[in-house]
Amino acid sequence: MWDLFVAIVLGIVEGLTEFAPVSSTGHMILVDDMLLHSKELFPASVANSFKVVIQLGSILAVLVVFKDRFIDLLGLRRRSGAAASTSKGGRLKLAQVIVGLIPAGIAGVLFEDFIDEYLFSVETVLIGLVLGGILMIVADKFGPRSPSADTVDKISYKQAFGIGLFQCLGMWPGFSRSGSTISGGVLLGMSHRAAADFTFIMAVPIMAGATLISLYKHWADFTPEALPFFIAGFISAFVFALLSIRFFLKLIQKIKLTPFAIYRFVLAALIAVFLYI
């Protein structure tokens, strides 16, 4: 039963932290590598595949929360002539999402091997936690008080591309994809809520693509013995991601980013204490 408990706890950690600007990688290191030690239950490849599977639970949660938005983006909703005309002029377009995905897509192709080989260490995660926190404080301090885009439907192609550039920072472990993109969106003239909405929408194709590729590479790890471990983690990640996304979207407009930045500094200090003292 211990393996199922570990799976559920890690799924909870993934669900609560994947889309909040606090670094799910940092939390996985603190909870798993230092406390639960999932790699002692299964081979390292299985433990790594598990972390990919629970990301699918988080992706499914985003699809549920933003289901109407994705239906509109994909053109699957039938509209009357007047409604369709209004929609074309005043709603987020799929092309804007694609523009936002381009920078990280190119950077991922160019630097994936370098990141996997040199940046996945506790030291780089600590650096990412601190630098990402500083960026979030800068966004709160210097972001415009009257955003040009107070909803995701008002963002421009220039803002979408700019957020895509900031998203590249999230490739550094510990920096946080959502932290970098929300901060970037605020600095580019978006409200905190609009930047968060666009961040979650962009996360789905990026995370889904990376997850499916990883699943294909590690399909042999899905043995009958490991399957309950995967299923328990997937379900807990989905449930808690669903709760945390809804809660975070209400919270971000009220408290902004600075409290999350302070939390990141505390988390970095805890990891450093566990490792070096």
Q: Separation of termini?
A: 32 Å
- Would you identify the regions where 5 or more consecutive residues have pLDDT less than 50? 82-89
For the record, the count of structural domains works out to 1
Number of helices, counting only DSSP H or I runs of 4 residues or more: 12
Record field, number of beta strands: 0
Rough outline: globular
Give the topology string: H per helix, E per strand.
HHHHHHHHHHHH
Radius of gyration: 19 Å
Helical proportion, percent range? over 70%
Proportion of strand residues = under 5%
- By secondary-structure content and strand pairing, the structural class works out as mainly alpha
Q: What would your notes on this structure say?
A:
It is found in: Cell membrane. It catalyses: di-trans,octa-cis-undecaprenyl diphosphate + H2O = di-trans,octa-cis-undecaprenyl phosphate + phosphate + H(+). InterPro entries: UppP. Pfam families: BacA. It contains twelve helices and no strands. The protein is mainly alpha-helical. The protein has one domain. The longest helix is centred in the C-terminal third of the chain and has 29 residues.
List keywords for this structure.
single chain, 277 residues, mainly alpha, 0% strand, globular, EC 3.6.1.27, cell membrane, cell wall biogenesis/degradation, cell shape
Task: Please write out the topology.
Layout: H1 2-17, H2 24-36, H3 44-65, H4 67-73, H5 81-90, H6 94-118, H7 122-142, H8 157-167, H9 177-187, H10 192-217, H11 227-255, H12 258-276
